[in-house]
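Problem: given the chain below (413 residues), write out its structure.
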Amino acid sequence: MGKLGIMIGLMVCGLAAGQYFEPPPMNPDPVSQVKETPQEFQRDPGVGASRTPHDTPYDPSILVPTNQTRVAVLGYHNFSNSKPVTEMLMRTTEFREQMETIRNLNLRVISMQEFLAWRQGLLRLPARCVLITLDDGWKSVYTDAFPVLKEYGYPFTLFLYTKYLSGRGDSMTPAMIREMQKHGATIGSHSTSHYYPSRWKQAEAQGKDFFQAFMDVEMGDSQKKLSDLFGTINTYCYPGGFVTPAMVGSLPNYGYTAAFTVIPGKVRADEDMMCIHRYMVFGTDPSIFRRAVDFDSKSSANFTPEKKITNPPPPFPVFPSPGSKVSEDFEQISAQLDTIEKLDLSSVQMLVSGFGRVPAQADPASRVVQWKLPVRIYMPSLTVQLNWRTTDGKKMNTKWSFDVVPAKLTENP
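Solution.
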């Protein structure tokens, strides 16, 4: 069911092309008008923590500086062990296997509250985290996915659209959702009607005033109705992944502090809060999940988190050396460039994975380029790229990787 496309025209979220889904019509019944007492989310003790320690250099309990955390946001829809698998419908057994994989990889599953606090600089998290989201309000989320999530103690977020909350057909009831709130669920808005991207485009084409009124209903009314039912709602998920500058600009007016796309990628601390990356996990394509939980491989094309990208070794001495293991309390990255002919020392740039370009210092006398780390590193591996030019204008670069392990693992027995 779902169809991955490319949005043509005015692009937002810093991309040359945005991706979106066109989900099938669901013929939802109107939301129940019966008012029920909202309940505040209460997180169970231990939610989000790995249930079993594993023999691995990575310790998911270690809190790292904000800019060293990466979060993989997973997006799911519908589940069944008997209905035909589609992009939007996954085997329940496969979903359970994926939750087990998250545990075996020692990835910390965090709640939406923790995610937002981290993004606001109020909370430190481990280096590798997962945020689980489930869209629309399919009844199978309650019958199939919820028992699995409760078993593993994982918090999760339900992005609901208000015309699909009657309990009729394949939709959930507000009572089901409140039960899940007691066991790790946070609620977010997925609009009022879950219109196709084509309908949003038609509304936008009818002028600024018409589109504003359209957003008031789809984005504003949804926030109010869901807040009445489940407590204050402050997150939004773009239906079909369709997003425009006008939508991004209006979200704060409706009380939203964060909004999620369908554009895959690890979330970093400096990500636009209204264009947050998310991996949509298809029932027909398990490679998406494998890429999402692979925090080590640059391409993440295959599910081999332990696999490192290999490059030709640098043509000069570097520290840490390629393929080596260093303690997490190492203090510098350096390169000795005195063997490079015609080197323009002023052109040297050092880039480090997770930090981007760093303020490395070059000593003209020794021709050593060095970056003194401002914080302790907790990432399991780092890749360094060095760029430079020669005096005759040639652009050169080299790249190497090494592992970072807890200090106790590098000590002699």
